[in-house]
């Protein structure tokens, strides 16, 4: 019996004694929401958060640029192999509007739910992953330095964009925070970040959605690019999210509580979409595709869409996604 079935059984009032004991296990700890980071998107952002449910309606599974089905749903996605690319049905060069997502309102609410995944680890640790999904990564939102800007070239755009922050709690107390940025990221003690109502405040880069601890200019990890952050629209993920637990020993997800649209949608969706190990966007277009060009062998205007939460090292022991180099900084 899955957690979603259990929660449903609870909602319709069957077997109350057994269920109430189980629900206590299924809910996310309250501190996961109490200390959820608040994120400022860029003031001139054009690619806002997207509901994964909405994204799925605009893509089809492809392998080696060939469609293997004309649609994908929450029930078919878990059967897809890791070499699948969920590919836009629309030509991205024609700038369809669905990748623009939904801008948060003045309360920090967007109709695009975030994804919160909690993972219990030895030593009283709970790692809470706050996943941010955007349907498009527009690298040209970052400023191209030096000669490149005169040549009007851009690179690193892709359909689908998974970013995250992670707060490590020890016995319910927030200890460290990790902010993903492109292929890497930065780790800090939780108290090192500025906070609002006790919640760490983070900044999301224009177009690329890399997460930073400060507003301003940041060096992107691709040469020639700078990311920009400022105190633009605030996104409060606790107002609308899908919540899950991940069991590292079995590598399985279970449904926990959610809020708003995410909370309503997740019960019927199951957890199969979190098990999908393929890509959430188009495969890098080849050079014959109109609009594609490459600056070096690896840096092209359009690159591969990213993998999802399951590929982000949820079972990590160190705070960073890449555990081989992880320094937890004590100031920003
Ligand atoms: C935002 O965009 C407007 C119009 O393109 C521009 O004038 C303004 O400088 C931009 N502001 C920032 C902070 O990028
Ligand atoms: C996809 O292309 C690669 C490289 O050309 C090839 O090795 C692989 O067998 C192809 N896969 C499928 C499923 O056609
Ligand atoms: C922010 O991104 C937009 C495109 O989405 C771009 O037009 C603008 O120049 C970017 N601003 C900065 C400061 O890089
Ligand atoms: C999570 O599982 C992986 C694979 O079994 C293991 O290497 C890792 O140490 C586990 N993480 C923790 C925190 O126990
Ligand atoms: C992890 O960090 C190490 C050391 O900086 C680096 O050599 C390696 O390429 C990184 N791994 C990934 C997957 O980025």
From TrEMBL:
Any Gene Ontology biological process: protein targeting to vacuole
GO CC entries: fungal-type vacuole membrane
Alphabetical list of Pfam families matching this protein: Vps62 (PF06101)
PANTHER family linked: PTHR48220, VACUOLAR PROTEIN SORTING-ASSOCIATED PROTEIN 62-RELATED
The protein's name in its UniProt record: Vacuolar protein sorting-associated protein 62
Naturally occurring in which organism (per UniProt): Phanerochaete carnosa (strain HHB-10118-sp)
């Amino acid at each position: 019996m899955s957690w979603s079935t259990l929660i449903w059984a609870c909602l319709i009032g069957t077997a109350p004694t057994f269920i109430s004991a189980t629900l206590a296990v299924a809910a996310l700890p309250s501190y996961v929401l109490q200390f959820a980071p608040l994120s400022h998107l860029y003031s001139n952002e054009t690619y806002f958060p997207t509901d994964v449910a909405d994204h799925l309606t605009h893509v089809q599974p492809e392998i080696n640029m060939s469609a293997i089905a004309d649609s994908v749903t929450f029930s078919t996605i878990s059967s897809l192999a890791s070499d699948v690319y969920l590919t836009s049905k629309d030509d991205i060069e024609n700038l369809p509007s669905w990748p623009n997502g939904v801008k948060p309102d003045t309360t920090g609410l967007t109709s695009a739910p975030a994804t919160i995944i909690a993972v219990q680890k030895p030593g009283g640790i709970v790692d809470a992953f706050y996943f941010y999904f955007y349907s498009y990564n527009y690298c040209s939102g970052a400023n191209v330095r030096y000669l490149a800007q005169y040549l009007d070239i851009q690179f690193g755009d892709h359909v689908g964009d998974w970013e995250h922050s992670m707060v490590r709690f020890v016995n319910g107390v927030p200890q460290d925070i990790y902010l993903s940025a492109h292929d890497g990221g930065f780790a800090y003690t939780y108290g090192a970040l500025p906070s609002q109502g006790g919640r760490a405040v983070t900044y999301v880069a224009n177009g690329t959605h890399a997460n930073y601890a400060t507003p301003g200019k940041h060096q992107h990890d691709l040469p020639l690019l700078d990311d920009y952050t400022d105190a633009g629209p605030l996104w409060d993920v606790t107002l609308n999210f899908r919540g899950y637990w991940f069991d590292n020993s079995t590598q399985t997800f279970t449904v926990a509580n959610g809020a708003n649209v995410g909370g309503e949608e997740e019960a019927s969706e199951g957890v199969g979409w979190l098990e999908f190990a393929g890509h959430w966007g188009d495969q890098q277009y080849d050079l014959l595709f109109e609009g594609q060009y490459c600056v070096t062998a690896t840096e092209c205007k359009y690159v591969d869409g990213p993998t999802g939460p399951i590929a982000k090292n949820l079972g990590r022991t160190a705070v960073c996604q890449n555990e081989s180099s992880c320094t937890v900084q004590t100031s920003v």
